[in-house]
Write the structure tokens for this entry.
Amino acid sequence: MTEAAGRDAGPDLESQFEATIARDQRIEPRDWMPEGYRKTLVRQIAQHAHSEIIGMQPEGEWITKAPSLRRKAILFAKVQDEAGHGLYLYSAAETLGADRADLTERLLEGRQKYSSIFNYPTLSYADVGVIGWFVDGAAICNQVPLCRSSYGPYARAMVRICKEESFHQRQGYELLMTMMRGTEAQREMVQDAVNRWWWPSLMMFGPPDDDSPNSAQSMAWKIKRHSNDELRRRFVDMTVPQAAKLGVTLPDPELRWNEERGHHDFGTPDFSELKEVITGNGPCNAQRMDRRRTAHEEGAWVRAAASAHAAKQAARAREEAVA
Ligand code: FAQ
């Protein structure tokens, strides 16, 4: 069905698709869809899946260095959840006719992207807390509206992912609360991590709206429900009171409450840095991709064994059907 998508549409199929979107109903894998809609979804879902898998690395580095058994168990669970999110998302991309091995190949060859945020280093255990608070917090802002995305399998995957992101955000904030109640050195570690992760977290939402080539069409198709700048603003409004409660300063001299607008004013992230990181020149891009490539090569025997097992099961099922 997906092969036929976009071809020989005819006015009926096209108008049915448009009507489904206009009624806020879901497009499902068997429905006709324009080729551009399918491509946009595969692009976004694959990038999202790659981000979850590469996103295991910055925090994964701290599993063996966690300060207690409790923190190790929490971090283990979180990093495992991220692997699970990647798998749900690859499965959602497969419903559009994409091939998981091909998507991985595209990532490894640098033909598909993953989130800029995972190209920054984690320098102390406070970074684990700040990633939970900021990065998972930003992910929640961005992904809760995606639970209403027009493509059914993507929207449904997001429901479970968002529940888990919520646990991730809370564990990060709780870790930081504990550190802030600790020694002066611990409070300094938290403030230092906040200073380093604030601006890259704002960049996660993407380029500004007037420089976001995909937003208009994605919003018309209701794949995206809000613009990049709108979600960035929501994140700032959500995070400022949390920072005050925690007792840290967000590193933005322009940040202040605007009574008239009922929102915070804030500075502009350095979008030239975002461009640099996206094009492969961030502080850890090479390291992240090397690690991903090595993991892929080392996992080859697992994929071969799983394929051999699946082939054997299928052959057995065929024999039983004939008998
Ligand atoms: N990094 O026209 P737009 C997480 C690219 S998961 C890298 O605005 P669009 C969980 C963009 O792809 C984090 N590339 O694009 C977790 C496009 O390139 P293309 C991932 C970026 O798609 C937590 C070009 O720039 N979340 O955090 C970035 O309409 C902790 C032009 O941009 C998602 O993927 C960026 N920051 O909007 C895991 C959510 N921003 O494809 C572990 C779903 C933009 O044309 C630990 N995705 N680009 O070559 C989305 O909502 C959207 O795809 C946006 C970008 C908002 C990311």
Notes: Residues 43-44, 47-48, 51-52, 55, 82, 113, 115-116, 131, 135-136, 139, 142, 203-207, 212-215, 218, 224, 228, 278 surround Phenylacetyl coenzyme A (CB under 6 Å).
